[in-house]
Amino acid sequence: AQRVTQPEKLLSVFKGAPVELKCNYSYSGSPELFWYVQYSRQRLQLLLRHISRESIKGFTADLNKGETSFHLKKPFAQEEDSAMYYCALSILTGGGNKLTFGTGTQLKVEL
Amino acid sequence: NAGVMQNPRHLVRRRGQEARLRCSPMKGHSHVYWYRQLPEEGLKFMVYLQKENIIDESGMPKERFSAEFPKEGPSILRIQQVVRGDSAAYFCASSVEGFYSLNTEAFFGQGTRLTVV
């Protein structure tokens, strides 16, 4: 079965410092990876997806199949980046499938 | 488009009562997913439904839990004879297509926080 691991429950960085939120997955096939974000008092929303290879709000994530990782990175943290971040995995199965989420990492950007 | 609407936002039930959680997907979305978030845990998949069909219920507990998505009206997650361990946040998401397209996006509701006393 597929699994997503986010080893850090809380990551605290200073404003302007680089950010890396770790995500590792286990799945023998070719999954699709996502990062979802939940800002305070807001609903969970998609931040970025592997397939689009885009940068959103300065965040990027590269899929490393050798290390089975999909770490989220941003070179310079901003205060508004403080939020809960969830890594998620989707696999293709007949008839549709589901997102499997990690336990999330709370990012706190301090001034 | 108001987004995915869940109600109630907070629900308190005594042990043994029934809990009904409602989810209205975004307009035009015919795929609904339910997730449960226990304290200190991530979002755990429960069930995936399309209109009038259960597609994947591999995450649903075998007893007391059921879900439906009728032709008309919201999707309902029903928990019978609730126990303290059912206390959690329950999130609903909807999408235009199922995840078999791999790059579809799930839009989430704000969740229902169930407390069993």
Spell out the key features of this protein:
heterodimer, A: 111 residues, mainly beta, 6-stranded mixed sheet, 3-stranded antiparallel sheet, 0% helix, B: 117 residues, 7-stranded mixed sheet, 4-stranded antiparallel sheet, 11 strands, globular
Folded structure, characterized:
The complex is a heterodimer of chains A (111) and B (117). Chain A has 111 residues and is mainly β. Chain A is built from no helices and 11 strands. In chain A, the strands form 3 sheets. In chain A, strands 2, 5, 6, 9, 10 and 11 form a 6-stranded mixed sheet that branches. In chain A, strands 3-8-7 form a 3-stranded antiparallel sheet, with no helix packed on it. In chain A, strands 1-4 form a two-stranded antiparallel sheet. Chain A is globular, with a radius of gyration of 14 Å. The N and C termini of chain A lie far apart (41 Å). Chain B is mostly beta strands and 117 residues long. Chain B has strands at residues 5-7, 10-13, 19-24, 31-37, 43-50, 53-56, 65-68, 75-79, 88-95, 107-108, 112-116. In chain B, strands 2, 4, 5, 6, 9, 10 and 11 form a 7-stranded mixed sheet that branches. In chain B, strands 1-3-8-7 form a 4-stranded antiparallel sheet, with no helix packed on it. The radius of gyration of chain B is 13 Å and the shape is globular. Chain B starts with a strand and ends with a strand. The interface between A and B is medium-sized, with 26 and 30 residues.
